[in-house]
Amino acid sequence: MVITNIIGGLGNQMFQYAVGRALSLKCGSNLQLDISAFANYELHQGFELQRIFNCTIGIATEADVRRVLGWQSLSLVRRIFLRQSMAKFRCKEFVIEPHFQYWAAVNNLTEDCYLYGYWQTEKYFTDVVVQIRKDFTFKLPMESKNSEVAKLINQVNAVSLHVRRGDYLNNPKNIATHGLCSLEYYLAAIKHIAKHVERPHFFIFSDDIAWVKDNLKLDFPHQYVDHNYGAESYNDMRLMSLCKHHIIANSSFSWWGAWLNSSANKIVVAPQRWFAINTDISDLLPMDWVRV
């Protein structure tokens, strides 16, 4: 059995699912998702994978986690053993992501394991890309307003542009860790797209559309997508994925919006600096994405 701890927003959940799915396929094991951390989680929209995507999901019970981790499955004990200083005392089944970049030793796991981390690189699921894309097809039909935007996206040289500010800006811990993509980044990204894409038409997604309208001036056809809120927020990712090219924020949400576009001809522009703190992001962005 492979159990993956799931926490965070939709983009984080997708990375955590993907690493577990890839490992379970490699080992011929069952994949179970431990969503117990959402019991007291008030950020984002809670656990969303099961509602949004066509992936078959098993939810780990306390007994499942206990079977894999034994006495280290107790929540208080688990929190203690997350500390790096306790690494040598963890049972071998308790697998914690050791650093942000790709950790090749995950491929050595062949038995029961419990995965804990963010696992933010496609290198963890490169061998099963087709299956991951299948798992991450959207389950629910689009309502009329999103259908209208999707129709327009299909008629033009659509470029998604994502500006993430709200939950980064309003949380001191988040802003200290993630920072915000600068206006200069977006201007440089737009310049790059304009140089390589004929007649680009920008579709702008943001949790702070008012700021974008006041600060980011575009000399190209553009449309603001500002109607997907709350439980419908995932539709922004869905619409992003329909665009031909992408300008993403330092956000796993728009990372996936760009990745889900399977076109070999897409241009994806991403920020060189993903975090405000010093972190090795060499494996975060696929090699053919442009860093500015």
User: How do the strands line up in the largest sheet?
Assistant: 8-7-6-9-10-11
How many helices? The count is 12
What is the C-alpha radius of gyration, as a whole number of Å? 20 Å
Low-confidence stretches: none
Instruction: Note the run of SSEs as H and E.
Output: EHEHEHHEEHHEHHHEHEHEHEE
Kindly state the number of beta strands: 11
Number of domains: 2
- CATH architecture heading of the largest domain: 3-Layer(aba) Sandwich
Q: Round the mean pLDDT to the nearest integer and report it.
A: 93
- The helix-and-strand class reads alpha/beta
The biggest beta sheet reads: 6 strands, parallel
Helical percent range? 25-40%
User: What proportion of the residues form beta strands (DSSP E)?
Assistant: 5-15%
CATH topology of the largest domain, what is it called? Answer: Rossmann fold
| C-alpha geometry | globular
> Class of the largest domain in CATH?
Alpha Beta
Give the termini distance in whole angstroms.
41 Å
List keywords for this structure.
292 residues; alpha/beta; Rossmann fold; 2 domains; six-stranded parallel sheet; five-stranded parallel sheet; 12 helices; globular
Q: Could you explain the architecture of this structure?
A:
There is one protein chain. The chain has 292 residues and is an alpha/beta fold. The chain folds into 2 domains: 2-135; 144-291, Rossmann fold. Helix content is 36%, strand content 15%. It has 12 helices and 11 strands. It has helices at 10-27, 49-52, 62-69, 75-81, 129-135, 144-155, 166-169, 172-178, 183-196, 209-215, 234-242, 252-259; strands spanning 2-5, 31-34, 58-59, 94-96, 113-116, 157-163, 200-206, 222-225, 245-247, 268-270, 290-291. α10 (209-215) links the parallel β7 and β8 (222-225). It is globular. The mean pLDDT is 93.
